[in-house]
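quick one, 428 residues, struct below
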Amino acid sequence: MLLAVLLLAPVLTRGPMLVGVTSESAYVVWQTSERQANGTVRIGSAPGNYPASAQDASYTETHHVQLTGLLPATTYHYAIDSDPRAQDSTFTTAPAGPALTPIRFIVYGDSRTNTSDHQSVVNAIRQEPNISFLLHTGDMAQNYPFSQEWDTFFQVEHDLLRSTPLFPTIGNHETLDSLYTWGLYFSPPRFNPDSGGSVRYYSADWGPVHLVSLDTFDQTGPAVDPKLDTISDAQLEWMKADLDAARAKRQTIFISLHHGAVSHAVGPAAHGGSELILNEVIPEPSARHVTAAFAGHDHIYERGCIFGVDYFVAGGGGAPLYPVADGGLPSSVLSLHSTLAYSVITVQGASVSGVTKNPHGIQIDSFVLPSPGCQGDAGADDPAPDAGQPDAGGTGTTTTASRACGSAGAATLICLLPLAFLFRRKRA
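---
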């Protein structure tokens, strides 16, 4: 009889992971093989010592347990009742205001498809010390309907996501099942009551850092090409108001979106930059002095300056790499690599800096934001610190251009005119 009960007991299949983490609360999300009532998270200040608990009262396979009444910038230990190993996991809440220590976060994206490459990136990220949170630029899994790619995603990222809060961005692959999986695990309305009942974009604070996650497919549905980038007037108006509010609080602002304004990936699978994002989105953060915009979509690493905004293409998380343009690039392209990669961003007071590494831990780029010449800073003609350096580790092709273009205005526009020939609206 006991054996029969054990065989019928729900088995942990995905998770746990941390989403919607603030200075006072957090969501722990996981899935079991069968429906389970009252999924429980036990929480405390030391491993194995969990005096408090919270439950998801519903009878379901996917559990969302909100932990409330937490203290800012505090590390907690927790375990979930669906885990037969009762594995101890930890997380640290966001600071409530100015941070006493540097805020370090990871930017990566397009982790789908190649499990071994995805695993190598995750393994490298896990070696980085004192990471506050993860910012994923979209396309987490292949996500074809009825695909098992999500099982693989959660297996690869298990030890990372159970201890590091995730702020995800919707990519085109997230739309392939009409956002069903996104709704199960990542839906912003579930974790951000102020974002409304149906939107798929959101913002979040981590002390003085403000994150804005845009949805560049917000009008995509079952009858619409899921690779066609779209952005509604409602989202644009929300973004402008959100950026204005963050700017008024003197926060350091970052934007994440899957299809960015610029990309110098080449080849039949490459998407290139989005004219929609270039013309309708980028002017708004440019006018509001946003620190940087992070995109994915093309499976490369690129950093540059567009209309006074530092931009990144962070698509080296595991998907098949694309070639990059070689030669004839505008001087606004500061670093361009066909390689698996992730970036570590450090915010300390008003200072923002970062490094980008390949899975071997070899640095392929370093930067201070804003980049010299971007957002009107002096030093536009300074050479890039990595100029002429090879892509150490042998993971791909590298092209690095010098820094020259300046702030938004006529000079920058002239520098960027060559980009017009590289913008594509490909659906591949």
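The mean pLDDT is 85.
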